[in-house]
């Protein structure tokens, strides 16, 4: 009898040992699961506490994180609106934007999407070779972005988002798209970049890092008639930011003053071209004549009513149209010729005094076209004067 009980006892002992091993194994797995859950919770907490630079584009609800949108800066000037964004570089926070967003304005309001206004900045730094500037923010923005690493690969079809003050309505717009192509300085994207988005960030969807700065200037400036117009509505480009740019420092006031000087130079050039199109007649001076782009003599004169020569010509046109002038044809021609001669002399003096060599690259590059146009406008006036002899 005993001989039969011993094997049974051994079997029972082995079964109990196996049961105990399974229980210990299960407990070990439970402990590991518990630690994983704790680590995941800690990871989520760290991500929630971190800035936009270390978080994903979207929040848990699939929307673009407020930390991202609050890194976008809305720029409103007395002459136009645009976009910028806050970037952390080497321990400092910078406002990045397009040079043409600042240019032309004499007063600027700079705030983020949450309404926080920034007023303290260091000197302006302009990139050599791009429509790109930056200013150190001498405050402490809570939200910011990071630039993609220098020479980080940007394969075709990389998913991106373009953020900006879309339509200039003061609300951050988010446009999704892909990279269509790259060059040494530019990225072509298919995300919608509309008026107001200029200067905004183009962000890689996967990493949340900035790869470009949006600009609608798809081609080099070719003439002085493209102000305020889209060049190539189908193709949209951004300045590459995954590369090292050479920065030149300027006082912000100097940059804005240089931009204003360039615009005034161009405006006088447009007036000269317009005047060269005029021809006194019984019904007036032909103010409806086309000049360049979509501009007419009248539209140019409307923008330059403070110019004394323009005022004189508008008055002459009115007198001719209403037949109020008492001047003979010879006297009318003499007066008209005198106004054109004054314009030619004024344009020549301005041309000689214009020195854009010290401008930031973006303005200096535009000035090349401006100087060529001024030379042509002076020639047009001289030719018109010759025809009035």
Question: What's a concise summary of this model?
Answer:
The chain is an alpha+beta fold and 389 residues long. Helix content is 39%, strand content 21%. The chain has a seven-stranded antiparallel beta sheet with strand order 4-1-2-3-6-5-13. A six-stranded antiparallel beta barrel has the order 7-8-9-12-11-10.
List keywords for this structure.
single chain, 389 residues, 8 helices, 15 strands, 21% strand, elongated, disordered N terminus
Please provide a written account of the structure.
Helix 4 packs parallel to helix 8 and helix 7 (329-353) packs antiparallel against helix 8 (361-387). The protein contains eight helices and 15 strands. The protein has a seven-stranded antiparallel beta sheet. The chain folds into two domains: 66-248, Thrombin, subunit H (Beta Barrel); 251-387, no CATH class. Residues 1-19, 50-55 and 228-233 have low confidence and may be disordered. It has 389 residues and is α+β, with helices and mostly antiparallel strands. Helices cover 39% and strands 21% of the residues.
CATH architecture of the largest domain: Beta Barrel
Strand order of the largest sheet: 4-1-2-3-6-5-13
Low confidence ranges: 1-19, 50-55, 228-233
Mean pLDDT: 86
Instruction: Tell me the domain tally.
Output: 2
Count of individual beta strands: 15
Please tell me what the overall shape is: elongated
Please report the distance between the alpha carbons of the first and last residues.
144 Å
Q: Largest sheet at a glance? A: 7 strands, antiparallel
* Oligomeric nature of the chains: single chain
User: How large, in whole angstroms, is the Cα Rg?
Assistant: 33 Å
CATH topology of the largest domain: Thrombin, subunit H
CATH class categorisation of the largest domain:
Mainly Beta
Judged by helices, strands and strand pairing, the structural class is alpha+beta
Number of helices: 8
Q: Spell out the helices and strands N to C.
A: HHEEEHEEEEEEEEEEHEEHHHH
Give the helix proportion (percent range): 25-40%
How much strand? Answer: 15-25%
């Amino acid at each position: 009898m005993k001989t039969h009980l011993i094997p049974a006892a051994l079997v029972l002992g082995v079964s109990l040992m196996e049961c105990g091993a399974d229980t210990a194994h299960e407990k070990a797995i439970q402990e590991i699961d518990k630690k994983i859950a704790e680590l995941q919770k800690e990871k989520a907490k760290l991500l929630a506490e971190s800035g936009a630079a270390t978080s994903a584009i979207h929040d848990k609800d699939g929307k673009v994180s407020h930390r991202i949108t609050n890194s976008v800066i809305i720029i409103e000037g007395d002459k136009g609106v645009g976009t910028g964004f806050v970037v952390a570089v080497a321990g400092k926070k910078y406002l990045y934007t397009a040079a043409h967003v600042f240019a032309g304005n004499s007063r600027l309001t700079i705030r983020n999407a949450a309404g926080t206004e920034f007023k303290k900045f260091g000197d302006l730094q302009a990139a050599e070779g791009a429509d790109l500037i930056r200013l150190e923010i001498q405050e402490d923005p809570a939200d910011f972005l990071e630039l993609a690493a220098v020479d980080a690969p940007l394969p075709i079809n990389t998913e991106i988002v373009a953020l900006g003050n879309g339509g200039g309505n003061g609300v951050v717009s988010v446009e999704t798209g892909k990279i269509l192509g790259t060059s040494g300085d530019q990225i072509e994207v298919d995300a919608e970049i509309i008026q107001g988005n200029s200067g905004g960030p183009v962000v890689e969807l996967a990493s949340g890092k900035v790869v470009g700065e949006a600009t609608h200037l798809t081609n080099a400036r070719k003439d002085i008639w493209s102000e305020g117009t889209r060049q190539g509505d189908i193709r949209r480009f951004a300045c590459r930011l995954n590369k090292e740019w050479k920065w030149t420092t300027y006082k912000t006031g100097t940059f804005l003053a240089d931009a204003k000087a360039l615009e005034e130079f161009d405006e006088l050039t447009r007036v000269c071209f317009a005047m060269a199109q005029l021809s006194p007649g019984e019904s007036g001076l032909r103010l409806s004549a086309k000049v360049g782009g979509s501009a007419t003599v009248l539209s140019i004169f409307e923008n330059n009513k403070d110019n004394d020569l323009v005022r004189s010509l508008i008055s002459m046109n009115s007198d001719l149209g209403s037949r109020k002038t008492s001047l003979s044809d010879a006297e009318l021609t003499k007066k008209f010729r005198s106004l054109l001669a004054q314009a030619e002399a004024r344009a020549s003096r301005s041309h000689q005094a214009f020195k854009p060599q010290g401008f930031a690259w973006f303005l200096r590059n535009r000035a090349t076209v401006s100087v060529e146009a001024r030379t042509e406008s002076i020639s047009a006036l001289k030719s018109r004067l010759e025809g009035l002899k």
